[in-house]
Amino acid sequence: MGNGIALLIESLVAVLLIMTIGYCYLLNQRLGKLRADEGVLKATIAELVTATDIAGRAISGLKQAVNDCDSALGERLTRAERLSAELGAHTATGEEIVKRIAMIAAAAKPGPLRPEQEPANSQTSRATATLAAAQAFVRRTQERQSGVAA
């Protein structure tokens, strides 16, 4: 019986050895295919490195373009704010001139001022002085026109 067990164990070892040899053969074939594809893999890696370099340069160019646009836009916004402030000042000046012209036109109408035409703001004395100057101007103009017509 000792020989039977020994023969069984040796047979089992032989079968395992045959399976190991078969598996090694299969691995050798796969490794051969992998080595054959190594050149293709190296070429693919080289293309990926080149594409990565190109993309990096493109990103740098885009960053530079964004910085240029940002600085140009900042300058334009600053200039627009300055022009807006100037336009606001000119508008306020224009409104003041229109008010003065309206007062002069009201003064040019014949007859005394009615109470509803009197200025109602806190600068009444300034408005009164402007009104008096406008009335004097109108009188001088009327005198010149009547002197020229005569």
Structural features:
150 residues; 88% helix; rod-shaped; transmembrane helix; DUF6468; DUF6468 domain-containing protein; transmembrane
Radius of gyration: 51 Å
Residues in β-strands, percent: under 5%
Helix content: over 70%
The rounded distance between the terminal residues' Cα atoms is 163 Å
Look at the structure and give the mean pLDDT. Answer: 84
The largest β sheet comes out as: none
Number of beta strands: 0
Structural class: mainly alpha
Shape, per Cα inertia axes: rod-shaped
Distinct helical segment count: 3
Helix-strand string: HHH
Provide the low-confidence segments as ranges: none
Q: Layout of helices and strands, plus pairs?
A:
Elements: H1 2-36, H2 38-108, H3 124-149
Helix pairs in contact: 2-3
